[in-house]
Amino acid sequence: MTATAPREEQLWLRCTGCASLLYRKRLRRNLDVCPECGEHARLGAPERLRQLVDPGSLRLLPDRLPEADPIDFVDVLPYPHRLTAARASTGLAEGVVCATAAIGGHPVVLAVMDFRFLGGSLGCAVGELITRAAERALDDRTPLVLVTASGGARMQEGALSLMQMATVSQAIAALREAGLLTVSVLTDPTYGGVAASFATNTDLVLAESGARMGFAGPRVIRQITGRALPEGFQTADFLLRHGQVDMVVQRRSLRGRLVALLAATRAGRPARPPVPRQEPAPRRERLADDGAALVRPAGPAATPAAGDTPALRDAWDTVRLARHPGRPTTLDYLDSVFDGFVELHGDRLGADCPAIVGGVARLAGRHVMVIGHQKGHTTAELVARNFGMASPAGHRKALRLMRLAARLGLPVVTLVDTPGADPGVSAEEQGQAAAIAENILTLTVLPTPVLAVITGEGGSGGALALAVADRVLMLENAVYSVISPEGCAAILWPDRSAAPQAARALRLTAPDLCRLGVVDEVVSEPSSAAHDDPAETADRLRAALLANLLPLLDVPPAMLVRLRRQRFRRFGANRAAARAGLR
Predict the structure, then answer these.
(1) 208's torsion region: left (phi>0), alpha (psi -120 to 50) or beta?
(2) Where would you tag: which of 103, 138, 293, 521 has the fewest CB atoms within 10 A of its CB?
(3) Mean pLDDT in order along the chain per 10 residues (583 residues)
(4) Does residue 301 contact residue 337 with C-beta atoms inside 8 Å?
């Protein structure tokens, strides 16, 4: 709906669907749904809560967190200025409102996102608040209801915002293990990192009529593919036809549907005592894990050889090196670092994505499951492998191999080198967001060691789908980011020519990410880059893998999972504030 008068005089609004002029009070009585055409206007979080919960039952959860600007991000405005403006315009502390309440007499915990606040973006504070809401639901043994409205992860917080996808997903996993219902209600719009994590990895996914959801937005897909999009692409009805949601619900029916689902769940769940929450133990600076067996200083593989240390590179130069066509690929490393690789194909649902390769191999005589993105060196290879951009079938193939590794007791080693997930129309039709979300959730509970290496480009959720690990290593000239520099520049700067400036602002290099705690160890590269001496790079990577993997083999599975969860639980607002204070 669009206003036809200044805000204080908005007695009439114009519907964006049919252009009808609507009396504001009549529209509000109709739950902000146009009575002429049924267009569902976007709602702020406070109004959404008023529509859903029983009168008098709402109890807001604390929303004040330490101020944090973890990477000192500046585009045309400093990030703190954008936060201040968002708070002034919405009256909210952050982009989500969390509360306990009752819906039809059934107690629930809710986390309701608000698109008005920086596009509902998922930053450290939003991730922390939703995770705390999930932990409250676990303590109270009540269902969790998420109402999503987001453009994706918050680029102004760099890779730390990307980590929130894993942090919230593992909180969802804990509720799943406890037998507690989780429900997400998709509202317009829900995209990016939110769609590829907690919006789609809940037990039930409802879509409000008119909502749009996808991993890549329609503008991005049109720009990359040059194709016209199908009628109704990524709308609620599109999602229903392609099996990605449980139901599409009109706003006037949403509360009633939730009541029915909550009633059925409550009737079928036997009473169980509350589970006491385990708070994460304090973590010393630069250590990736709590267990002594997992704590290692950077070994020889992380230290450049004598006379081999390059001067610090500009971030944009590092981006170009990470994308160099001569850079070793996953198949190159499988030939040089590992022995006896046996490739396994297919997602068992009808496809085999060439951008993901995986199978059983040996590392210094120990069997491991290796899964990685495959790009190629020539134009023909890059095209055949879709430039390392995995389709939903690729993510599901990786998921199948991860689960097989867990059943066989094999450690998992992942090699990450992708610009991001496949941004195509068919990928959205096949459930790209849900495929990534399921990988992230599964990795948080996988009862076998997981070691990830960022070898080239680590692009957004497509990278994180293979990088929720006990230890994360990164080659010296690799990059890992919530968004590409070009994409960031296109959104926050006047034009894409600001990509070098965006690269510096995103803090996407290995030293930056090691300082932020996202990466545990940097593996040095010989001479100027890995492609100058692939054999020496392979030797250094093999040494780093063994140094980090061997201690993990002695850790019991339950402890592995617990420590992995603690690793990602710490990427919240408190940690971001602490990191900001360290600089």
Answers:
(1) beta
(2) 293
(3) 46 75 75 77 91 95 85 90 94 95 95 95 94 96 96 92 93 92 94 93 92 87 82 88 89 91 68 46 33 36 43 85 94 94 88 93 92 95 94 94 92 96 88 93 94 95 94 95 90 84 93 93 90 93 95 93 91 60 47
(4) no
395, 404, 381, 412: which is closest to 352 by C-alpha? 395
Residues β-bridged to residue 191? 214
Strands (E), 406-513: 412-418, 450-459, 471-475, 479-481
| Residue 216 contacts residue 423 (beta carbons within 8 Å) | yes
Q: Are 144 and 137 in contact (CB under 8 A)?
A: yes
CA 194/CA 28 separation, integer angstroms: 28
Task: Judge whether 468 and 444 are in contact, CB under 8 Å.
Answer: yes
Tokens at residue 547, please? Answer: 């140094």
- Residue that is written with structure tokens 């429900």 in the block: 183
Q: Residue 41 and residue 489: Cα distance in Å, rounded?
A: 30
pTM: 0.84
**Paired tokens of 205:** 């996914």
Q: Dihedral, CA atoms, 125, 129, 130, 134, nearest 10 degrees?
A: 150
| Bridge partners for 100 per DSSP | 59, 109
Distance CA(381)–CA(329), nearest Å, equals 11
- Say how many C-beta atoms besides its own lie within 10 A of residue 24's C-beta: 15
Contact 286, 86 (CB under 8 A): no
| Dist CA 128 CA 70 (whole Å) | 14
